[in-house]
Amino acid sequence: MTPVDPTNVAARxxxxxxxxSDAGGNGVTVVAVTKTFDxxxxxxxxxxGFSDIGESYGQETLAKLPGITSTPTVHFIGQLQRNKVRxxxxxxxxxxxxxxLELATEIAKRxxxxxxxxxxxxxxxxTKGGVEPxxxxxxxxxxxxxxxxxxxxxxxxxxxxxxAARPGFRLLRSLVDAHGLEHCCxxxxxxxxxAVEEGSTMIRVGTQLxxxxxxx
Length: 216
Ligand SMILES: *Cc1c(COP(=O)(O)O)cnc(C)c1O
Description:
The radius of gyration is 16 Å and the shape is globular. The termini are close together. Strands 7-6-5-4-3-2-1-8 form an 8-stranded parallel β-sheet. It is built from 9 helices and 8 strands. Helix 1 crosses helix 2 (39-47). Helix content is 38%, strand content 17%. With 216 residues, it is of the alpha/beta class. Pyridoxal-5'-phosphate is lined by residues 33, 35, 56, 77-78, 156, 188-190, 204-208. Pyridoxal-5'-phosphate (PLP) binds at residues 33, 35, 56, 77-78, 156, 188-190, 204-208.
């Protein structure tokens, strides 16, 4: 895991807030994505005024989170294997990448009543995961029946170029509204302005705050 310089993170946070403000997104929640960076990135994010952090990799999360002394709200945003849920349950506050019933069932068992988001495939790229929009209704219904607190939907846009993201963002927002959910979690470092324009309530930002990630 890569260390960060807290001074850099503070400066990058100022730049991020300026971008958000320019886009009309002052009220949007920022999830600081600390994946691939060491636990110091979590402290740096908290010092810079963020209280939500995002992690993507099960093993890395289990190596990093138990050692931290601060208490951020931890979002799990990566593709998730069912057998990791049991170990992660003590550390995760919001499960963002729930895209199938077996995962919802396991979370309900290991973390009863947990806050979750359903990940919807808005890119058409199967590698990113997410439930097909047409299959969202039953998953939402079953998740609620399991006693989970579904606080919103999340999506990962086409990464090719920011403008290509807009139709997917628009789709996600319409699904959030159709189901009367609170959160629409979309937008990352490269496309956050477009996401905010299309009604994001929560963005997930790594590179803009911590710099380029080492390839895993
Ligand atoms: C890594 C990751 C992010 C952060 O991406 P950046 O482009 O570095 O801001 C956001 N969402 C998900 C699901 C990720 O895996």
